[in-house]
Amino acid sequence: MHYHAESYGNYNASTVRQNAAVDPLERVVRLASGSAVVIFSLSTCCMCHAVKRLFCGMGVNPTVYELDLDPRGKELERALMRLLGDGSAMPVVFIGGKLVGAMDRVMASHINGTLVPLLKEAGALWL
Amino acid sequence: MFPPSPMKFHHNPRESLKSGEDSAGSESALISLASIGDNSTATGHRLQPPLPPEIQPQMEMASSSDKPATGVTQFQLDAKLAPPKRKGAGSTSDKVLDAKTVRRLAQNREAAKKSRLRKKAYVQQLESSRIRLAQLEQDLQRARSQGFIIGGGAAGGNISSGAALFDMEYARWLDDEHRHMSELRTALQAHLSDGDLRVIADKYIAHYDELFCLKEVAVVSDVIHLYTGMWTTPAERCFLWMGGFRPSDLIKQAEEALSQGLEQLQQSLISTIANGSVNDSMNQMAVALGKLTSLEGFVRQADNLRQQTLHQLRRILTVRQTARCFLVISEYYGRLRALSSLWASRPRENFIAGDNSCQTSTDLQMVLSSRNQFSNF
Lengths: 127, 377
What we know:
- The structure holds two protein chains of two kinds.
- Chain A is of the alpha/beta class.
- In chain A, 47% of the residues lie in helices and 16% in strands.
- Chain A has six helices and five strands; from the N terminus they run βααβαβαββαα.
- In chain A, strands 1-3-2-4-5 form a five-stranded mixed beta sheet, with helices on both faces.
- In chain A, a hairpin with a 2-residue loop joins strand 4 (92-95) and strand 5.
- In chain A, helix 2 (24-33) crosses helix 4 (73-84).
- In chain B, helix 1 (5-18) packs antiparallel against helix 2 and helix 10 runs antiparallel to helix 11.
- Chain B has helices at 5-18, 23-37, 55-64, 67-81, 99-145, 161-189, 194-221, 223-227, 234-238, 252-274, 281-316, 319-344, 353-374.
- Chain B is an all-alpha fold.
- Classes of the chains: A alpha/beta, B mainly alpha.
- Chain A binds chain B through residues 44-47, 49-51, 53-54, 57-58, 88, 103-104, 107-108, 110-113, and chain B through 251, 253-254, 256-258, 260-262, 264-265, 268, 291, 294, 297-298, 300-301, 304-305, 308-309, 311-312, 315.
């Protein structure tokens, strides 16, 4: 599991311009497409901890963005909430750049057997 | 004032008598009169003043008499009521009534009619509430006898209304569950077609979906109650996982993830309460409260897991397998509950052996008989 705080580091002019120009939702999409499994999380949220455990337990190596540690995390959080149409967003999972959803959707897809094929397709699982 | 009223008196009791009510008829006559006489009805009209005292006792006598007699008494009443005139109300005993009076009387009639209708609706509501209350009491009785701890608890704390409500509804759900289970059993034994079995299996799942809806409400109203399993039997409580049954080993991973998340929540809560200065206690409490709210999310996710598991079972198994699987699940929990009652009623040294052994033997029979059924599959 590797953590990203995207606004730190990589501080060069072009990145700043890029970040400043991009609206939150576009940023979300861009970040989500960057890795096979992307989790938007809050460092203090225990449900986020549970979803991270789930993926690690399956042998997946997700990319985690802790939005409460990101200076522009708030707007990403809001964009995600709007995307899900639900106030209780975190954690939000993307697999292969596609939105899976919040914890209940992840659980449901795990139980009905659609999660593992999705992970394999995205290249996050090999067995 | 009253000469028009004899018409009303005619209407009231006869109306009620027509509807077939006995004492209720004469009662409603009395009460309608009272409401007519009551100046403070919702219609807001200044109605006729209260009945003169000499009339009221007579009315009461009328209402307590039997149905046939009431009709007779009414005529007597009408005769008695015709003469008294209220002073200063205008000479309404005149044959020719002026427009204002006519309008007033019409309004009074309307008001009286509305009063009667309201009263009828109220009585009907009372009746259905009474039935519901009786049913709830029955459920409570049954729940108590099954070893639930309701309406108190060891600490003597009050049970919250959300918890009490859930307990009642769960007791009723359990009854339906037994019914579904016997349906499954007879269906399997009767070797019904797959189509018929599917219908029954679907009903079973739909019934569980109902339970998850009930639990969803209870999660918000009293999650601690759900989580600690105070609504289950003691034996079930031993094997409780996050406010309900533990889904099968096939999905250990999902369970494990949720369990770890919950563990982190508990750790975090403990450290919040344990640390922090005395000065900051209000803040600490606020933070702790926020964390406790997360418990709702966990119970909700756990319920989601349970529900998904049941639905998935139905998808991957054949209809017959599904029916058998559901029956096994039902019987397992039935026996766990029976075990709970047995445990609660087991003979102890201080007790007179005779009393307890009777109950123990019937419970034992119940467990044994269900085990015989189980052995068919």
